[in-house]
Design goal:
Blueprint: E1 2-4, H1 12-21, H2 35-39, H3 41-44, E2 50-57, H4 64-67, E3 75-76, H5 85-103, E4 109-112, H6 120-127, E5 131-132, E6 138-139, E7 147-154, H7 173-177, H8 195-200, E8 217-219, H9 223-226, H10 253-257, H11 261-267, H12 277-290, H13 298-302, H14 310-323
Parallel strand pairs: 3-8
Antiparallel strand pairs: 1-2, 2-7, 4-7, 5-6
Helix pairs in contact: 12-14
Amino acid sequence: MRICRPDAIPEAEGRLAKFVDHGRHGQMGWMAERMNWRGDPSALWPDAKSVIMLAEPYTPDVDPLAAVEQRDRATISVYAQNRDYHDLVKKRLKRVGRWLLEQAEDEAIKVFVDTAPVMEKPLGQAAGLGWQGKHTNLLARDLGNWFFLGSIFTTIELEPDEAEVDHCGRCTACLDICPTKAFPAPFQLDARRCISYLTIEHQGPIDPELRPLMGNRIYGCDDCLAICPWNKFAVEAKELRYKGRPELQSPELAGLARLDDTSFRAHFSGSPIKRIGRNRFVRNVLYAIGNSAESRLLPVAQSLAGDEDEAVADAARWAVERLT
């Protein structure tokens, strides 16, 4: 836990504007909306005097990069292998917030975890939790980079902590490992080439040029996080509901491709994966099948070539072409 002022990230607004002007937000139109709030937290809630930034580890107990080599199976981002972190983190923030208000009854709070136009990572650096690395994610010398962020805005005047500075040095491991070369330069990300964006946010067919580079990653991508040398100091996750469910750790592609809307919703109940819907999910699975080089998966792809969803059907036809 660290503290900063709401006006502690004056550079964020200009960086965000440049990111959007270059079109690097892709289909995420919400990033271009309310940019004044997103770029200036003090405008989001003018009465706030302090921002409490909190980090909660979800460190995996296995190497996520190992799953990428199992081409007949799927790779799901570590954070999405169990319960939706939004629900868990927000409940924790509310508990802390209630305690805080008991100490200062005439004050007010607002809690956020991806639920408002709040730039958590720059705020996390300003508060001293860590720094934004060359992969643009927040990392820390005593946490690695496997942690969720939550924020509590409050009218209470609290002493701010010292901002953290960059400790990446000459290391470029996160940039070098990116399968789709989504980093135009250190500390810059083009979401349109990022597998996390492509598998979760992008609607419709994905650029055929990028499909072979996605490998078996069907929801998110952890490569740039997993390779970071600072993870040797990563803190063990204490919340058991962040530990991957066995059925979501390298599941078989064939079974996932056969999910209809009802079975998809049941299978991913309580999971962040549920929000992308069956069609986008199966589209991703079919790209992974096309990259598997497993001829035994050909009938699975063929069976979906006439799917009602055009993006699914297109992905199935692409997979069939790759496997024949």
